[in-house]
Q: What sequence folds into this?
């Protein structure tokens, strides 16, 4: 049996190759992770900060109106989803004439977000649908407008089967 002796040079080269491979894989994985998910929740934190006071004021105005807005979402067998919103004022009377819009947002991937156009189907009753809604967790965002101004906004986590 002819075996070559293990020398210090061979051990050094094996250590350099091992750590070089580990560092190379780590750098590659880090670059891929940063390129695919930058880790930001909003595109411009500065712009989001500028509208923060307006959002607080709008939330206080919404709370003062004491509206009761109920949303129901159901995933259909064809893969779509039906959304129904019922809006009532503080006295329990249906609210009509609003323009409601909705969005289904994936908590983990903004690329999968879907818009839901809601139309008034009756007094205070708004309906819409979205096609090709995958099962799983979604955030249902409902926004109501009157005279071009947002008067209602809610965000609720839903699980669609």
A:
């Amino acid at each position: 049996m002819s075996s070559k002796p293990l020398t210090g040079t061979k051990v050094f080269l094996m250590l350099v190759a091992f750590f070089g491979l580990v560092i190379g894989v780590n750098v590659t994985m880090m670059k891929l992770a940063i390129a695919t998910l930058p880790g930001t929740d909003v595109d411009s934190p500065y712009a989001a900060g500028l509208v923060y006071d307006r959002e607080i004021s709008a939330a206080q105005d919404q709370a003062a109106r004491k509206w009761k807005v109920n949303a129901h979402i159901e995933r259909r067998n064809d893969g779509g989803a039906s959304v129904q919103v019922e809006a009532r004022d503080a006295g329990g009377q249906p609210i009509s004439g609003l323009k409601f819009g909705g969005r289904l947002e994936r908590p983990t991937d903004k690329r999968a977000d879907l818009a839901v156009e809601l139309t008034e189907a009756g007094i205070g009753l708004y309906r819409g649908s979205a096609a090709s809604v995958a099962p799983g967790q979604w955030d249902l965002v409902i926004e109501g407008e009157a005279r071009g101004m947002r008067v209602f906004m809610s965000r609720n986590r839903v699980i669609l089967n």
User: Anything to note?
Assistant: The two ends are 66 Å apart (CA to CA). The chain has a mean pLDDT of 92.
